[in-house]
Amino acid sequence: MTEQLNLTKIETMLIELLEEYRIPSVSIGVLQDGNITDFAIGLMNLSTSEPATTDTIYQCGSMTKTWTALAFMQLVDEGKVALDEPVRTYLPGFKVADPEVTAMVTPRHLLNHTNGIEEAIGDPGEDDDVYERIVENIENAPQVFPLGYTHGYSAALGYAILARVMEVVDGKPWDKVMKDRLFDPLELTSTRSFHDQVDQDRAATGYLIRSLEGDAIPSPVPYLPRSYGPGGNISSTPDEVLKMAHVFLHQGKAPNGTRIVSVEAIREMMECRVSVPDPYLLGSEWALGLTVYHWSGETVYAHDGSTIGQQARLRILPNSNLAITMMANGGPRDSFYRKVFNAILTELGAVTISDLPQPDPTVKLDVSKYEGAFERPGSRYEVIAEGEKLTLAFVLDPMHSRVLGKPPRITYELLPIDEAHFLMASADPMEDKQTVAIYDIRNGVAQYLHTNGRVNPRVID
Q1: Is 428 exposed, middle or buried (0-12, 13-18, 19+ CB in 10 A)?
Q2: What are phi and psi of 440, to 5 degrees?
Q3: Is residue 378 within 8 Å of 460, Cβ to Cβ?
Q4: Mean pLDDT confidence for 53-71
Q5: Please, what's the b/e burial string for 213-237 (b: 16 or more CB within 10 A of its CB; e: otherwise)?
Q6: pLDDT number for residue 2
Q7: Are the C-beta atoms of 302 and 291 separated by less than 8 Å?
Q8: How many beta carbons lie within 10 A of that of residue 73, not counting itself?
Q9: Picking from 3-12, 89-98, 257-266, 280-289, which range would have the lowest pLDDT averaged per residue?
Q10: pLDDT at residue 461 above 70?
């Protein structure tokens, strides 16, 4: 690519968007043909009015999973683990409620979120043995869906099990595995796997934006529990996130020339994919530690992340030798990300983000197939038929309702895209359009509801 980024133009737009969305700050990095351009706008801390800089450290949230997967693939390269060997090969005491899953679940199922194990991790604490305790705590964890049957995002559990495998095989805590295998070889001086290791003088404060009129509120949960570590606790800067992205653009090599993983490992991570039931919001496929989008014919690899008050996005475009990351201490908002990334992609002459599909008014539904409740611990969706129309009620648990400042029940109109996919239209100006899949019709009714990566099974009355 030969086009250069007009920083003045992009920064002017960002100032306006931060004001529009009430987001305190954003830090962005662009890796183009091997060179990194990074810039930051806004305040990392509203109380002190300290400005964000390119050295400000943000929480990566679930982008952490890409880092963990990359380190796991090093062990695959070394022949210490195998993607399709049962987890029990490495953790002989591993057990969940379903005997078949106990015997057959593999690292590949964990990496691509097809294991189906409920996130019943209990309270494993904050000590160094947290991932060992998680594995012990799930011996009675039920299945959300049969092993390998569909995709259903695992926020913490799947990658915590992977971390425990890494600890046993590598003989050291997961945090040390990540430092030795990734952070040091990539020459990362700011990236850390646990909040107490982060330079607090450079750490952005997370904020909740509950309205476009009120002030941003400091997050009541400044960091995620340690149980989320391998799936959500890395903190970093855009520059260092892009050093990790460089590995995917350069066949497994770091910017300093160090080989992080083999060419074959990168190919496996990017090409081993499963379909996502809701293919519009978070990618149409899930690879090993990566989501996969298809923008106007170009394959784009990605991972998003959010904590309670911070967000991170990463997009890798191999055909354009380009990667973009954005980190912010407010949000997340899908429309904000789309505006920012599309402006940058347009400036660089690259393909832009595909729009969400439009509803199809010609689709005729048998609404009785979709009616009912779909539920997981902490979330409940109720699909209600009103004549020929469907609405969706999202029932929040009291804690989430209180933290987010939202009512305990939020209702959306469901606009059909086709017989399995819907737009969720909201009247709330703080909510962007979302999509949802209600699918797998058996015995006359849909068995699962899938949105925001998560799958919720039908509640059997």
Answers
A1: exposed
A2: 60, 70
A3: no
A4: 98
A5: eeebbebeeebbbbbbbbbbbbbbb
A6: 54
A7: yes
A8: 26
A9: 3-12
A10: no
Tokens of 323: 């990667």
Q: Give the helix ranges, DSSP H, for 304-459.
A: 334-347, 398-404
Asked if residues 408 and 393 have their Cβ atoms less than 8 Å apart, the reply is no
- The two structure tokens encoding residue 51: 């400005």
293 has which bridge partners?
Answer: 300
**Which distant-in-sequence residues (6+ apart) come within 8 Å of 130 by Cβ?**
124, 160, 226, 227, 229
Using one digit for the tens of pLDDT, what is the confidence trace for 139-148? Answer: 999 999 999 9
Assigned token pair, 451: 């949105």
Q: Which of 145, 153, 162, 418 has its CA nearest to residue 286?
A: 153
Per the annotation, the verdict on 284 as an active-site residue is no
Q: Residue 121: which residues within 8 A CB-CB, separation 6 or more?
A: 134, 137, 138, 156, 157, 160, 227
SS3 at position 416: strand
Q: Are 155 and 231 in contact (CB under 8 A)?
A: yes
Output phi, psi for 65, to 5 deg: -60, -35
- pLDDT above 70 coverage of the chain, percent: 99
Residue 224: half-sphere exposure toward Cβ, Cα within 13 Å: 27
User: Out of 25, 62, 193, 320, which one is annotated catalytic?
Assistant: 62
Number of neighbours of residue 365 by Cβ within 10 angstroms: 17
Q: How far apart are CA 27 and CA 38, in angstroms?
A: 7
Alpha helices of 396-442 — where are they, by DSSP H? 398-404
| Average pLDDT, integer, range 51-71 | 98
> Tokens 């330079």, residue?
199
CA distance 137 to 339: 43
Whose structure tokens read 């990540």?
Answer: 178
